[in-house]
Amino acid sequence: MSLRVLNPNAEVLNKSAALHMNINAAKGLQDVLKTNLGPKGTIKMLVGGAGDIKLTKDGNTLLKEMQIQNPTAIMIARTAVAQDDTSGDGTTSTVLFIGELMKQSERYIDEGMHPRVLVDGFEIAKRATLQFLEKFKTPVVMGDEPDKEILKMVARTTLRTKLYEAMADQLTDIVVNAVLCIRKPEEAIDLFMVEIMHMRHKFDVDTRLVEGLVLDHGSRHPDMKRRAENCYILTSNVSLEYDKSEINAGFFYSNAEQREAMVAAERRQVDERVKKIIELKNKVCSGNDNNFVVINQKGIDPPSLDLLARAGIIALRRAKRRNMERLVLACGGEAVNSVDDLTPDCLGWAGLVYEHILGEEKYTFVENVKNPHSCTILIKGPNDHTIAQIKDAVRDGLRSVKNTMEDESVVLGAGAFEVAARQYLVNEVKKTVQGRAQLGVEAFADALLVVPKTLAENSGLDTQDVIIALTVFSCYDLHFLILIF
User: Fold this and answer.
1) What are the residues facing 379 on neighbouring strands?
2) What homologous superfamily is domain 1-112 in, according to CATH?
């Protein structure tokens, strides 16, 4: 008796049909994203199951939001998203190149060539292209004073593919200045030191860079100041409220007096911590008009808030953990985990601390700091869609500027590298390859042209005329850039 080992609903394909199905999946994904490429690319409208609408031309956002079913297309989408996470851009270009590579391969496979032979040619072409990239890239000196114009060009190139021109140009300065703000000599750039805060308020053009920090909460006492200048900042992780025991513990008392004595002892312990903070405030603020601000990661109970308010101290509780390191980098000083042995050396400084109320939300601005190494990009917009679009663009811009500063080199865009690499592969590398692997090198080289072709097509130019005009130049002559835009 025979056994059924296959799913009755499964489809069985021979190797040729399966291969063509995978190729068609890559080509289909390419066709969806093709019109996105470049500053002249079109915007896609995504409609969710609940009717929510999202407008974007960011390839990363599209690939994450699209419901992709084909396993090959899913793998390509994940590869492109990884490219965006690493470099901040290049999602659409990656999908286009993979799709074009499959399209070029299909021609030879239909003629009977084994895919393994093509892959051998692809590997040779890949290694040669990476070697050529080292010669082609333009070195950029990033010393103590980086070239801001180069960094602005990189940021502008990334941002203009995701936002309209005027907004992209405004964000260019913001992104570059944010990365330069957090940069430290001889240390890797940590983009998490850039806080991206948003307000659903006013218009997108009101987005700005705050050289300091914006906290999404305010003080919890009505008598505390809402605005203070020349402030000492104490960044702490100290509980200023009664702490419950970490284990199951019980207290037994015989009468009400014992209970009151126990409550008083608990209160006295918390009050002692508060008094030490007040003593430090009196020490540094006596004889001047300076103010004192406490930003605490843990809780502050109402009696402690009342003591601090009477002493003229502004106190914020439950600050987010991610902001504690940012506060120290922005304001100076150091974060303390205990109020014992507090000294003025642990205090930071801010020229201005004020609270902004928007509807039911409170925001605390810490600005005018000295030599900050952390900052906040405050994004504003009239709706959630605009804010999300700007957020995605800013994150990509930050990564692209960071990569430029770390690699200390740039590669010219607008298809310059792709055309030059294609010329190099065809004119020099292909001659050194023996046998059928030459065809794999040629297919790889032709696939590179998909980027300038698509840029020309999206710009309303004749694709063939542009490619012919570009390929007549030497791969080392970059003046053809003016032919595309």
Assistant:
1) 198
2) GroEL-like equatorial domain (1.10.560.10)
**What is the sign, positive or negative, of the torsion defined by CA atoms of 192, 33, 422, 453?**
negative
User: Which has the closest alpha carbon to 128: 471, 472, 477, 444?
Assistant: 444
Q: Decide: 262 and 201 in contact? Cβ < 8 Å.
A: no
**Helix ranges, 39-70 (H):** 59-65
CA 45 to chain centre: 23
Q: What is the pLDDT of residues 3-27, one digit of tens each?
A: 455 566 666 666 677 777 888 888 8
Q: How confident is the model at residue 476 (pLDDT cuts 50, 70, 90)?
A: very low
Contact 159, 393 (CB under 8 A): yes
Top-tier CATH class for 213-244+251-371: alpha beta
CA dist., res. 198 & res. 180, Å (int): 21
Residue 416 has pLDDT above 50, yes or no: yes
Q: Hey, what amino acid is at 245?
A: S
**Would you state the structure tokens that stand for residue 388, as one six-digit string?**
């999300």
Taking the C-alpha atoms of residue 371 and residue 180, their distance in angstroms, rounded to an integer, is 11
Taking CB atoms within 8 Å and a gap of at least 24, the contacts of 454-460 are 454/34, 454/37, 454/38, 454/96, 455/37, 455/38, 455/40, 455/414, 455/415, 455/484, 455/485, 456/484, 458/35, 458/37, 458/38, 458/40, 458/41, 458/42, 459/38, 459/40, 459/484, 459/485, 460/40
Where, residue-wise, is CATH 1.10.560.10 in the chain?
Answer: 1-112
Beta-strand pair 291-296/313-316: parallel
Report the b/e string of 223-251 with b at 16+ CB within 10 A: ebbeebeebbbbbbebbbbeeeeeeeeee
Which are the catalytic amino acids? 58, 91-92, 396
- Chain region(s) in the chain for CATH 3.50.7.10: 213-244+251-371
Q: Are 37 and 414 in contact (CB under 8 A)?
A: no
Question: Would you list the DSSP string of 292-354?
Answer: EEEEESS-B-HHHHHHHHHTTEEEE-S--HHHHHHHHHHH-S--BS-STT--GGG-EEEEEEE
State the pLDDT confidence band at 321, using cuts at 50, 70 and 90: confident
Task: Let me know the angle formed at the C-alpha of 233 by 228 and 237, rounded to the nearest 5 degrees.
Answer: 130
Q: Give the per-residue pLDDT at 414.
A: 78
